[in-house]
Specification:
This protein has a two-stranded parallel sheet. It is globular. The protein starts with a strand and ends with a helix. It has one domain. It has nine helices and two strands, in the order E-H-H-H-H-H-H-H-H-E-H. By secondary structure, it is mainly alpha-helical.
């Protein structure tokens, strides 16, 4: 028998897991996942001039651009989309806090870095899977995949993989633009690995959640986010 799980709690759980997982991967320094690599590279470049331009700040600045791109792709604009920016700011705050907390972790051996990377990858995947089970506007990253898949009746895992590949190419282009050829800042072997497995990993975790929990609303707020 499935256990009940609040869709609102799924939102909080997903956001916290996503921030922690991303911070662990940043600490491992094997390369960021393709989904956040463009924002991370922007952070590396701009923070040299503006120290306050943290990874978290770069995240929601980049997602403003992505939200505009989403509207062009699905040819519509919902009021609920605007809440994704609020989510992006909230996530940016959680990410900066998580990164600061990760400073207490000593990642001076390959074994520790590998554990941090793989752990961060799975935690991020679980976070995204939870966000796919809430009506509250997710980050624009997840919103983009969800809306494109629903609008064009495409498998979520396939859209996720295609999106990650596009982000991967964009990250390489930004790395070359900002740091020159031969300098892969934020884009490393781990990024390639994430791009290849993220879609399937998230699909598997999402199916596990579906088989384990019955997601139900605890608050009468769904209509606000679906307009």
């Amino acid at each position: 028998m499935k256990r009940h799980f609040s869709t609102e709690l799924a939102y909080i759980t997903g956001m916290v897991l996503l921030a922690i997982g991303t911070a662990l991967m940043e600490k491992a320094d094997f390369g960021m996942s393709a989904i956040v690599a463009p924002a991370y590279i922007l952070h590396l470049k701009i923070s040299k001039i503006l120290p306050w331009f943290t990874f978290g700040v770069s995240e929601y600045v980049f997602q403003v651009f992505l939200l505009f791109l989403l509207c062009l792709t699905v040819r519509k604009m919902k009021k609920g989309y605007l809440f994704s920016f609020v989510t992006a700011v909230f996530y940016g705050f959680l990410l900066d806090v998580s990164i600061r907390l990760c400073t207490i972790i000593s990642a001076d051996t390959l074994a520790v870095r590998t554990v941090l990377f793989l752990g961060g990858l799975v935690i991020c995947g679980a976070g995204v899977a939870f966000l796919f089970h809430t009506y509250i506007a997710p980050e624009v990253y997840e919103l983009f995949v969800k809306e494109v898949a629903e609008t064009y009746s495409l498998p979520m895992a396939n859209v996720k993989t295609a999106y990650d590949c596009g982000s991967f190419v964009s990250a390489i282009a930004l790395s070359f633009l900002f740091f020159g050829f031969g300098h892969f800042m934020g884009v490393k072997a781990g990024t390639v690995f994430c791009t290849l497995v993220n879609g399937r990993l998230i699909g598997m975790l999402s199916r596990y959640l579906d088989s384990t929990f019955e997601f139900q609303d605890s608050l009468a707020l769904r209509g606000i986010f679906e307009r």
